[in-house]
Amino acid sequence: MEIRLFQQQDAEQIAQLFHETVREVNLGDYSETQVKAWAPDNLNFRNWAIICAARFTYVADDRGVIAGFGELETNGHIDCFYCHKNYQKMGVGSKIYAAIEDKAYELGINRLYVEASITAKPFFLRMGFSTITEQQVERRGEIFVNYAMEKFLISR
């Protein structure tokens, strides 16, 4: 499996991965109406291509199958971070996170932060993040619980 930066041709697979992961994996922690609001049926691949290209988006490429992806913004914010439903608990997320953290060090970022879902919170805790607060956020009329989390990077 190769961890690499996003390429335009990845957009459709990434959008589909996001949709399927939220609809199936996150369904364990959120209601059906919540996951449908979070990942609606009308996916716009063009939007995914624009957003992913504007950030440091790392992709786990398993011989043409995108097993996961994570996005780092230049201010240290980790936005989208998802692993394919068929690649859960296989170390894919850890590999993507390692690439993100390496890039943060390279850019001189000393604090990473994320709004983690209930599902993703244990992963980010394992990566050394601390929970700042539990939040309630609204998305397409649904209220979701997530967690503001952060990690301070110590100089290498």
Distance between the termini: 26 Å
Shape: globular
Radius of gyration: 15 Å
Mean pLDDT over all positions: 94
Q: Helicity, in percent?
A: 25-40%
Query: Sheet bearing the most strands, described?
Result: 7 strands, mixed
Q: What's the CATH H-level superfamily name?
A: Gcn5-related N-acetyltransferase (GNAT)
Q: How many helices?
A: 5
- Helix-strand topology string: EHHHEEEHEHEE
Helix vs. strand class: alpha+beta
Question: What fold name stands as the CATH topology?
Answer: Aminopeptidase
What is the architecture at the second tier of CATH?
3-Layer(aba) Sandwich
Assess the beta-strand content as a share of residues. Answer: 25-35%
* Count of structural domains: 1
Domain N-acetyltransferase: 1-154
GO molecular function, one term: acyltransferase activity, transferring groups other than amino-acyl groups
InterPro entries: Acyl_CoA_acyltransferase, GNAT_dom, N-acetyltrans/Recomb-assoc
Protein name: N-acetyltransferase domain-containing protein
Structural notes for this entry:
This protein is of the alpha+beta class and 156 residues long. It has one domain (1-150): Gcn5-related N-acetyltransferase (GNAT) (Aminopeptidase, 3-Layer(aba) Sandwich). It is 34% helix and 35% strand. The chain has helices at residues 11-25, 32-38, 45-53, 92-107, 121-126; strands at 2-5, 56-62, 65-72, 77-83, 111-117, 130-139, 142-152. The longest helix has 16 residues, at 92-107. It is globular. The two termini are 26 Å apart. InterPro entries: Acyl_CoA_acyltransferase, GNAT_dom, N-acetyltrans/Recomb-assoc. It comes from Tolypothrix tenuis PCC 7101. Pfam families: Acetyltransf_10. This is N-acetyltransferase domain-containing protein.
